[in-house]
Amino acid sequence: MGVVDIPAGLDGFTADFMTSVLRHQGWIAHTNEVVRMDEAGVGMTAGYFSALKRVRCTYREPTDAPTGFVIKTWPALEIMPRETIAGYFRRDLAAHAGFAADEFYPRPRLLLAASDEPRNRWALIMEDAETFATHKVHETELTLAETRSLIPHLVDQAVRWEGCDQGAAAARLDAIGVHLWASPANLDVYRAVLAAGAPFLDRMLAMPRWITPTWPDVLGPDFCQAFTRRYTAFFAGVHPDAGATCTLSHGDLRGDNLFLGPPGPANPDGWLVIDFQLMHRGPVPSDLAYLLTSGSVRPDVYSGDNLRLILREFYDGFMASTRRYPAYRFEQFEREYIVSVLGRVEGSRTTASKILGLSRKALWEKCKRYGIPSAKEGAEE
Q: Does residue 184 lie in a domain region?
């Protein structure tokens, strides 16, 4: 930022630091200051790749500035390789600060997005959307009506960045490390982590005291390891080189990162999205598939006729606006959606069939028809 040093850890984001940033950004007068800052956590599901805290600021003088903020910085416990975490921060900061309001999903008002990479200092401070909107966490799952209300927005986003595997859009996204979902750069990160964790997870899930029946009873032995070895082949069909569509995807579009509320100055679109560290380029239905498999929607949303309604509304809306993919058939859309769902559930057709509203046999038949490989067949060594 050039005015104050970015703190090394979460404890360094004090009332004095907030005063300096708020003054510099013109959110408060230079005679005003934060005289008290109350802190709170942000929930048990937040902060896997970062350290976060929610703060409430009390000002010396009356002001129109927000009182609630969320602060994100480097995690105290690094559970991923350091360069991977740095990549997450680069994408998150770029999404919040590098896109115009009409270029990407609506985001909370941004106070600060800054980094000092040589010293590994990172800061993202935004207005706390929970002060004026409903955080759609598991306790407030999306209803069918709420899910349908998001479809036009998801379509607009998919159309806005369609074909971003090529041209100026591709160059722009390359520059901030937004990779193709099916690219080696993206899959190698997960393969490296899963290779170490999969055997342990297989062992845990085989214990009857954890789940009955166990995963091996349903999926066969060593399923997690088999899926890890199958990553490349499994995702090859949704690479643009194989004819798949491509758009910019949030990558983690679930209730923990969604806020819905009445339109207003801080929320002009009636919804807001946060946490873009998993942003990538993937098939057109990527974010829709993630949302519906995230546990953030009520089960009736993805059951029977409701799921068919949602898929058809998304597809019809996309086809009414697309210029890049005028020959995009519903069969290809459905294939890309199924692969996206299977990717979210580690290739488990048993779990995917429930989310897709299909019998396991019907899903097997669709996978065979669309040439979608099993996560357990022909594992790569």
A: yes
pLDDT for 369? 87
Which amino acid is present at 105? Answer: Y
Rounded CA gap, 23 and 213, in Å?
58
CATH number of residue 50's parent domain:
3.30.200
- The reply to whether 61 and 180 lie within a common domain is no
Q: Where are the beta strands (DSSP E) in the chain?
A: 34-40, 51-59, 68-73, 110-116, 121-127, 134-135, 247-249, 258-260, 271-273, 280-282
At 94, the amino acid letter reads: A
pLDDT value of position 220? 57
- pTM of the predicted structure, to 2 decimals: 0.83
Q: Count of domains in the chain?
A: 2
The proportion of the chain whose per-residue pLDDT surpasses 90, expressed as a percent, equals 59
Which of 127, 150, 184 is where one domain is finished? 127
- H or E stretch covering 20: helix 15-24
In a domain, 381, yes or no: no
The SS3 assignment for 305 reads helix
Per the DSSP assignment, residues forming a β-bridge with 58 are: 36
Domain check: are 240 and 305 in the same one?
yes
User: Domain range spanning residue 73?
Assistant: 10-127
How many Cβ atoms sit within 10 Å of the Cβ of residue 197?
13
In the chain, which residues have pLDDT < 50?
1-2, 44-45, 197-198, 200, 210-211, 227, 377-381
